[in-house]
Every structure is written in C-alpha cells, then in structure tokens.
Amino acid sequence: MLEETGLPYKVHLVDITRQEQFKPEFLKINPNNKIPAIVDHDGPHHLPISVFESGAILIYLADKTGKFLSSDLRQRTTAIQWLMFQMGGIGPMLGQLHHFLHYAAERIPYAIERYANEAKRLYRVMDNHLESQTFFAGEYSIADMAIFPWVNLHERQHIDLDDYIYVKRWHHEIAERAAVRKALRVADQG
Fold it and tell me: What is the pLDDT of residue 186?
C-alpha cells in the first residue's frame, strides 16, 4: 500500500524470533504485540498516530490518500467485505496451515487436513468470485493488497494455482504491478 500510494516510509524490522514485539516501545504502537503496525508522524491534525492490524492500516492509508478504497458506498462496501474475508478467513486459516505444515513441533495429520481443506475451500470462494471480476472489488483495492501476500505463498500451502485459474490470473496480474514487485524486493531484504 505504501508503494502503491507513493507515501514516504521507513521500514523498522521487528524480529519476533528475538521477542522484540514485547518491548515497551513496540507495545506503545501495538498493545497486541503483533506485526504489522505503523506510526504516521503526519496523522490527523498533523499529529502522530499509530495504527495496528493490517486491515485497519489499509483502511487508514486509503482514507488518508483517497486511493484504493472507493468513496462510492457500494464499491467501498464490496472492498471492505473482501478485506474482512482476508482478515477473518484467509489470514487465520492459511496461517494455521502454514504453522502445522512447517512449524509445529509435532506433525498432526488431523490439523493439516483440516486447514488444507479450509484453504482449498477459500481458494474456491476466491476463484468463483474472480471468474466474473478482475479484482475483488471490481477495481484494484485494499482487498487485493490484503489477499495477495497470502496467495503469493500458495506453494508453501501446497496449493497449485492451476486448480484455481481465475485466482492464478489475478495473482499474475497483481504480481506484475511495479509497486508490488518493489514491495516484494523490500520484504526479501528484511
């Protein structure tokens, strides 16, 4: 989102393997000790504001810049509902799948099967929707920005995008955006 809007920013890495998310200075920004979080030093009324939770950050930046979230109530609502789909479904379910596939101390077949099945269901929901839409809200929006990083990890989820041709088309189109390519390079360097 920051690359897409052209807003200046500075990345501050928070090393969760070193428990840096529990440091008092980070807890002032996000009392829930999770990443991401931002501090906008030129917030409302030119006062600093910190924002945590990726969905809240995206809405805040969209409202601040007037970009990637329509002011038309119908289109705005569509974008927000797909953003919430990511917040309540894609993120938690694919996050659990990643955990049980790659990080769990013990391999638990039931958990892997449960989250793999849910991942496939969510991919089908996205594929069905994208059959008639180029982007989740009709035009490129914060919903696409929120969903893309999870779909970009499809191989780690053992998902073959050839099984979801409309998601594959959408993923390719977004991956080709200059701002997305730059953001992925920045993330790889972190």
Answer: 75
Q: What angle do CA 157, 158, 161 make, to 5 degrees?
A: 95
The tens digit of pLDDT for each residue in 34-75 reads: 999 999 999 999 999 999 999 999 999 999 999 999 999 999
State the angle between helix axes of 73-85 and 142-151 in degrees (0 to 180), rounded to the nearest 10.
Answer: 20
- Determine if the peptide bond prior to 92 is cis (ω within 30°): no
Measured CA to CA, the distance from residue 88 to residue 83 in angstroms comes to 9
Cα 29 to Cα 145: distance, rounded to the nearest angstrom: 22
Confidence at residue 190, expressed as pLDDT on a 0 to 100 scale: 60
Q: Compute the distance between CA of residue 59 and CA of residue 42 in angstroms, rounded to an integer.
A: 16
Comparing CA positions, the residue from 104, 122, 133 lying closest to residue 163 is 122
pLDDT tens for 174-187 read 999 999 999 888 77
* Alpha-helix runs per DSSP H in 28-164: 54-65, 73-85, 91-98, 109-130, 142-151
Q: What is the largest CA-CA distance in the chain?
A: 53
Q: Rounded to an integer, what distance in angstroms lies between the CA atom of residue 51 and that of residue 108?
A: 36
Q: Which of 59, 60, 54 is nearest to 76 (CA)?
A: 59
